Amino acid sequence: MQKKEAIITGATGYIGSNLVRKLLSQGWKVTCIIRDIQKLKQQAWYEQVCYILYDGTLESLIGTPHNFSKDTVVFHFAALTVYNCTPKILDQMLAANICFGTYILEAMRQWGLSKFINTGTYWQHSDAGYDPCCFYAATKEAFEQLMVYYSTSSPYIQSITLTLFDVYGPNDPRKKLLNFFHQMAISQEELALSPGEQKMDMVYIEDVLDAYIVAAKQLLETKEPCFKQYPVCTQHRTSLKELVLMYEEVMKVRLNILWGQREYRSKEVMQPWLPDKNSRLPGWEAKIMLKEGLEKIREKM
C-alpha cells in the first residue's frame, strides 16, 4: 500500500512541527518547505523528512525536482503572526502571509497537486462576519480570497481552511500567556495585565492536530472542486481572569498579576467569534477541555 504524502509549510513552528511528528507516526511521507535549514536540523524528526529550500521566489519551488503522488496533501502553516504591524515589517507581512501562500498554490498547479489545507485565525471574524482585529488578520483574509480563485478556476485546487482559536500545549516555545505564567511562577515577578475580562477559546494541541488529520481525510475522499472553511474551537469561553485562577489551581502556584495596569489592545477581541454548530468539521470535536489540558502540561514540565 502506497504511503500517504504530505507537504508542510511552517514545519518548524509549534503546530507544524507537532503535525510532522504525528504524520510520521502514522506512516506518512513528509516533505517540508523551509527557509532555514538550521531550524529544521533542530527537530527530532529531521532525518525522517525530505525538504525544499524556499528562497522567497516561486522558482525555488517549481524549479525543484519532485516526485509527489497526485494525492499529496499540502498543509499550510507558515505565517508572520504579529498583532501590531509597523511600517518596518509591512513588506515582510505581505510576503509571508500573502505572497508565499500564493506561490504554494501556483507551485501545486505545476506539480499536478490539488489538495490544500490552509490555516486561518478567529481574529478575522466577529459574529457580524468579517471583522479583522489587526493587519495580520486582514492578510489572512486576503489570502483566502486568492484561494477562491484557485479553487474555482481549472486546474482546481480543493481547499479547506481551518480557523484556529487559542492553541496551547506542552513544550510551546511561542511567546504565549502560559509561557509567561510558567516564568512568573518560578521568578515570582509581577506581570501587568489588562482588567482580564476578554474571553478565549483554548484548544489543546492534540485536538488541533486531529482536526488537520480529519480535514486531510475529507480532501482525500473528495473528487469535486471545493472551498470549505471550518472553525477549530471548543465553544467553551474562558476569561483571562478565569484562566489565571485555573492555572494557579492546577499548577499549585500563585501568580503576581497586576490587573488593570495595562489597557486593552486596540480592537481587542473581548468575545471570540461563536461559529454556528452546523459549521463544524464533520468527524471532529475537541476532546480535551482546558483544565485537563493544563494538567497534561503540568505532567510534562
Descriptors:
UDP-galactose 4-epimerase, domain 1, 301 residues, 9 helices, 15 strands
Give an account of the 3D structure.
- The structure is a single chain.
- The strands form five sheets. This protein has a seven-stranded parallel β-sheet with strand order 3-2-1-4-5-8-13, sandwiched between helices.
- Helix 1 (14-25) packs across helix 7 (205-220), helix 4 (90-111) packs parallel to helix 5 (135-152) and helix 8 packs across helix 9 (290-299).
- It has helices spanning 14-25, 37-41, 59-62, 90-111, 135-152, 177-187, 205-220, 240-251, 290-299, and strands at residues 5-9, 29-34, 50-53, 73-76, 115-121, 125-126, 129-130, 158-164, 166-168, 190-193, 199-200, 202-204, 227-232, 238-239, 256-259.
- The model has no long low-confidence stretch (mean pLDDT 96).
- It has two domains: 5-167 and 202-232, 3-Layer(aba) Sandwich (Rossmann fold), CATH 3.40.50; 169-201 and 235-275 and 287-299, UDP-galactose 4-epimerase, domain 1 (Alpha-Beta Complex).
- A hairpin with a 2-residue loop joins strand 6 and strand 7 (129-130).
- The chain has nine helices and 15 strands.
- 37% of the residues lie in helices and 20% in strands.
- The percent range for strand residues is 15-25%
Reported by name, the CATH topology of the largest domain is Rossmann fold
The CATH architecture designation of the largest domain is 3-Layer(aba) Sandwich
Task: Let me know the number of strands.
Answer: 15
- Rounded to an integer in angstroms, the radius of gyration calculated over CA atoms is 20 Å
CATH class of the largest domain: Alpha Beta
Question: Could you describe the largest sheet, including whether it forms a barrel?
Answer: 7 strands, parallel
Category by helix and strand content: alpha/beta
- The count of helical stretches stands at 9
Biggest sheet strand line-up: 3-2-1-4-5-8-13
Topology pattern, helix = H, strand = E: EHEHEHEHEEEHEEHEEEHEEHEH
Query: Superfamily at the CATH H level of the largest domain?
Result: NAD(P)-binding Rossmann-like Domain
Number of discrete domains: 2
Poorly predicted segments: none
The portion of residues assigned to helices is: 25-40%
Distance between the termini: 39 Å
Mean pLDDT: 96
Shape: globular
